[in-house]
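User: I'm new to structure prediction. If I give you an amino acid sequence, what do you actually give back? Let's try with this one:
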Amino acid sequence: MELLDRYLMSVKPTHAGARFPNRAHHALRLSCRTPETLLPMPITRGFTGRADRRQARTTRADRLPPGQFDTGDDWPTLTAEATPAVDRDSWSLRVDGLVAEPASWTWSELRALPGSAYSGDIHCVTTWSKFDMTFTGVSVDSLLAAAPPLPQAGFVMAHSTSGYTTNIPLDDLTGGKAWVVWEADGKPLTTEHGGPLRLLVPHLYFWKSAKWVSRLEVMETDRPGFWEQAGYHDRGDPWLEQRYQGDA
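Assistant: Good question. You get back a string of structure tokens that encode the predicted 3D arrangement of the chain. For your 248 residues, that looks like this:
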């Protein structure tokens, strides 16, 4: 925690309108840098969670959650740790924990699975939102079909090769709501944006979409990941402004 405290205290805000309710939010306001294939496969254009309400959001203003701003053509980057060098030849993705049988995939095996894509918006807890992005990869539903969660399973911890973790309710990863993706807007994910593979959970704040994902650990009870231990919300719904522990 001493290293985390030093990190949280060292970061300076980069957006003139930034609000820092606590040190953890201060840390997340890192640099906003420059931005970064579609396949013949099903594309999910958003999805219907609290469905009817979201379907009614048609204008850009309607699609902006409370407290967010439109980042336009930029895709800001944030990394809480050193960017890892990932060798695809030795990389693998594993689903384990409270499952009927663990499953794992090499890079080539993962790319051979039936593809899926998401087209829609993403929202970061640091208050930026980016509209009309398309991500290509494999649905988490397909991964869990190979490693079915046991009946008592309720949560998942996403692990990155860097050591980063984030906890997510199982219901937020199933039913066509989450993917592991290797392309964004028709181009391979760059390393700074989580390439070669990142988790994508677009209906939650973007820290839940773990970069460099290498493991999905299915759990019975919830436990906090990296930012959640620093005071961030366990779920992170942008439409409810679930930024911090104790928010609705």
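You can read the tokens as a compact description of the fold. Here is one thing that stands out. Residues 2-240 form a domain with the Sulfite Oxidase; Chain A, domain 2 fold (CATH 3.90.420.10).
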